[in-house]
Amino acid sequence: MILLKRGRGMERLLITGAAGGMGRLVRPRLAGLARILRLSDVTELEAGPGEEFVACDLADGAAVRELVAGCNGVVHLGGISVEGPFDPIREANITGVYNLYEAVRANPCRVLFASSNHVVGYYRQDQRLKGYEPTLPDSLYGVSKVFGEQMALLYWQKFGIETARVRIGSCEDEPSDVRRLATWLSPDDFARLVERVFAVPRLGCPVVWGVSQTSTGWWDNSDAGYLGWEPQDSVEPFRNRFEAPHDPDDPLVKWQGGAFIREPIYK
Which sequence positions are flagged as catalytic? Predict the structure, then answer.
């Protein structure tokens, strides 16, 4: 596991969704980026040295404003990260993102918004994307991440709030199925990306594909090259672990969204 050097001028870095899967993976890796990591979730966490915990429901606008106050940067991992009924997704991923950007407008700072590859889930796996193509979400969850990306773009254009819209592939210790040989993002590579987002002199509002090195990738990060982020970890040592489905119409080998294509629209 890498340990990052402390970021210049970072007194307090907020990590929302710190109790979730990605939050647990990257929290120890980001400890060096600021003097204090402010951790937040609806689930209670025990804060360690150099950390503080603030419970917050993203749907509570006043609470989110208090949460963001005094922070020099936000790594926004909070919200719902799977497909499901619309009402919880709306509260966490739509109302919650609006509340976050209103809070950042009151306390200007950079944001890393954890978007998702599921904003383009209905592109085929033989298509190569740069990030400016029309979104083709595969789920209500994917639609909510499209909303988040557009909110980030609006607040950049209208208020100058800089955001890296990072379309996370599959962030886990190791890839867990054949599709993730094209989407795997190592936790260490994600931590390196976070460091670059808060280090570059000018960020803007780029789309960044969150994926480690792979010979079968679908995404082109050249437009975000000015960030200076170069993934160091490779999926190749895991490639022989998985056998592709024989059915060419299986979503795992046809669509970039994989199994999310099969998900129903929940009531």
Answer: 141
